[in-house]
Amino acid sequence: MNAAYVPSDYLPVFIQLILALGFIVTTMIVTHMVGPKRNSQKKDDPFECGIPVVGDARTPISIKYFLIAILFVLFDVEVIFMYPWAVNFKQLGVTGFLEMILFMGLLLSGFYYVIRKGVLKWE
After folding, report:
1. Which residue, 66, 46, 49, is CA-closest to 57?
2. Which CATH number fits domain 63-117: 1.10.443.10, 1.20.58.1610, 3.40.50.2300, 1.10.10.10?
3. Each residue of 49-103: pLDDT tens digit?
């Protein structure tokens, strides 16, 4: 049985969406109108876990930190693809094994490139 969907089937979803957005907008407007508006030097100071602010927040950070973070995410996500392959190893057969060898080859060639470029060398 293949039933066709009509736009009225989605009416409850749209009503819920409109009610949710209306609640958000109403809550934001009411809290800004009713809430206290007292500013002071102490209240406007930045606060980080009870530690007094020292220095400027705009100090430059080494690009190496960001490169390592991005590479970690990249290689970590690629390793996630290996889990479903390992679970379905028998069903995938030789073709799945060869595809994983190709995948690992590309992954390791990227890792080799990163090492050759010296991205992981920290000074």
Report:
1. 46
2. 1.20.58.1610
3. 777 777 777 778 888 888 888 989 888 888 888 888 889 989 999 999 999 999 9
* 51 secondary structure, DSSP code: B
pTM of model > 0.85 = no
Residue 111 CB partners (closer than 8 Å, separation 6+): 75
Alpha helices in the chain (DSSP H): 11-34, 41-44, 63-80, 82-87, 89-117
- What is the token pair recorded at 72? 């970690």
- What would the two tokens of residue 81 be? 């693809």
